Amino acid sequence: MLRRAVAAVKVSPFNTMKYLNSSNYFEMFGLAPCFAIDMQGLELSYRRLQSELHPDRYASKNEDERHMALANSTTVNDGYRALRSSASRAQCLISLAGWEKSNVALSSAFLMAQMEWREAIEEARASMDAAALEALGRRLKHRVVQHERELASALDERSDFDAAARYVNEFKFYEKLRDEIDDALIGLDH
Amino acid sequence: MAYSDKVLDHYENPRNVGSFNGEEQDVGTGMVGAPACGDVMKLQIKVGENGIIEDAKFKTYGCGSAIASSSLVTEMLKGKTLDQAMEIKNTQISEELALPPVKIHCSVLAEDAIRAAISDYRSKNITETAGYVACKSAA
Prior knowledge:
Chain A is an all-alpha fold. Chain A has helices at 2-10, 25-28, 39-52, 63-84, 86-96, 108-126, 130-157, 161-189. In chain B, strands 1-2-3 form a three-stranded antiparallel beta sheet.
């Protein structure tokens, strides 16, 4: 897998240019397909690809090549975004593993905890309690770090895609909580 | 996005907001969530001895359509038997509220909540019902 990834990076868009394949973003950036990626490596690889695909380099090329460079630049941006965020990076790995996404049920314990989070935020918002909201924000941050650790372990150590898909599903709820807390804090400022 | 008048009505005056004690034997609780948007919905039913839903309550954290869907559902449930309640389809909810295609999933969530609440009630009461039937057939 790793060897293929390195080979893919060597395909320079200059002479043998072709449309980049968006089916494996890890390969596109020359990264090993795992959750705990080297973020700096991603950053460097992204910048290098984008500078290679910069429209200035294609100003004198024919229209087909200019179009291809532009399309590739978009693909590189999509890939960068997909790999930067934990939830979508995990989703990329789950899809790469060919794991069919059936209906991953959320546990009632998880949903119950979500209800409690939302109630606590609602209460703090209603009583205009900024300190309580900030405390909730810190607790949430801690929870998300723990959640990422569990997701990393499911993907990189256990290859448990079933559990990983569940963690990915749960991520969205934590993002929502983050938004709710931020909204409430902004509301207090006005 | 413009909400229909019915959605706005349920959103501004939600019916039956609140909770029953989920520990009670005659209460069924359905908890559901939508990973796509992070909405959470709790729907509870209170079932009479005759097997008819006497009361329903909900608590939803989500968009206007999710709140309206669950509010409407609590009204639809009252007076129905569990079997009748199981027949409620998300299309009835979305048609009644004139939900746009992007909000259909809110009505699906409400339908899931009904099923979850009924299944919770049934799992709590299964032994009692079976015992009752056994006694009756023995008599």
